[in-house]
């Protein structure tokens, strides 16, 4: 109370030294809400208004403090007092506002005063329509752009803050006067067009984003708002359905058709009757991928994406004509069920890009999620579409998709784009290389990895448990292989003429020391071991041959190899003379089990793909069973610390 009274008197003093020191102290103490309340109760605001309206000239210099610094302290105190919401911004006089604006528009003013003045105006803009219109009329965009290109980073930041506040207000996003209207969209379009003419995008891209220091959190937010305003220019077209009776829009559709088929000899310049022309047009629109080929305008009546989809298709057609014709003609030459529909894909892709880039959504007050590549391109949305529509065709071929897989392909494309955008590529060229590298197989691998992370099967303690379980479960797989050999399998003999007319059976003795085999009659499934006359001691077995290594996989007549036989053939080399017992497994599953079993008998590791698959299945099941009790409990990466041992071990329990 005493401090407020003393400072209130000090700022009214005719002694400039006392006045300057009081204002300096006021700027510091105004952050305290109790002091601020006491100072305002004494009508302190009126004195501050008076000092600001009089300006630098009336202050002169006071001792060690020049007039500019005194004024800066006054503006700082004003900002701090307004933070407490004791006074409405709408109560400010026109003279006060115009004086603050003059500090922004005048270059011969101290930078600290300009920064504070820009902050004051930025706070005014969202509070009311009246203040917004006043600031917009008084502060010129040219002046703001001059400050934005200053070397002083703080002045640059404050200028960007006021610019984005004006843009947000133009779009009606400040929350004071409601949702955006068509008039506000046109106004923002005019502002963005003016900024484009002044090459502000190039300056931001070169000097702010790729400057000596990375943009801070506050600047990142302003760049996000500027990006949202730029992308917001697509909203009007996105929310406008196609008018089937609009001559201009119908001409754009015809331009798409002509550009795709004019060099293909399918366009009729005149001559044939109207029925023939109508039939050919419908056929070509079907090849372009329109669902309603007789009236393609109906495909563009859905909003969103509305006319924005037509704009992107026309842009792709005109700016990359070779890629456009290649896309259309390549797919029109495929089977009907395998062709990737250009128009349908373009409409859905435009909608996906609008959703991922949040086109038409209100700006967040805290978001900092801007894309550096947005400021590196004039027609960002359209250029991004040109890259992504070619990605759709590439992914379609990788997935070997049919018409029924359309939604699945677009989901994968959405994921490819979303993952690449999250990497924040600095240019569209870098985006293109990264999104093309993220092919369908890579997406499947990432999904599998994320699923394992979600199930916590990749947590460090779980991986450690997995390694401990592996030897025990590997032994279980080994036992299963040897048990299968003991049960035996039925094989067919293949003659030189490839006639599969004779059957023979092979099985391992229960003590795993002898391999029994012999011919059997048709219909015998599991003959007793005593009925198999031939024997090979396991101790005499030398090696296992598979595939091309086997002699019985070659035909004597032609010398060619049968691919099916190659995949199922294996031989056991035994005895000193190195005789061979040749096998052709009935299935790939039997081949894996028998080759694994033979390797185990030879003292080697199991080498088939089935062995690894079976081990993974057992490990997965065992881990899930053991982790059932830990459901919804996060597993720490590191074990809890082991407590220190007690200071002495002199303790016992008295059982009596």
UniProtKB/TrEMBL annotation:
* Keywords annotated in UniProt: Apoptosis, Phagocytosis, SH3-binding
User: Does this entry carry the keyword Zinc?
Assistant: no
Q: Which SUPFAM superfamilies match?
A: ARM repeat, PH domain-like
Q: Which organism is it from?
A: Dryobates pubescens
According to its UniProt entry, the protein's GO biological process terms are: actin filament organization; apoptotic process; cell motility; phagocytosis
Domain ELMO: from-to ranges: 248-421
Q: Does the keyword S-adenosyl-L-methionine apply?
A: no
The protein's job, in short, is: Involved in cytoskeletal rearrangements required for phagocytosis of apoptotic cells and cell motility. Acts in association with DOCK1 and CRK. Was initially proposed to be required in complex with DOCK1 to activate Rac Rho small GTPases. May enhance the guanine nucleotide exchange factor (GEF) activity of DOCK1.
A molecular function (GO) term: SH3 domain binding
Pfam families from the entry?
ELMO_ARM, ELMO_CED12, PH_12
Query: Can you name this protein?
Result: Engulfment and cell motility protein 3
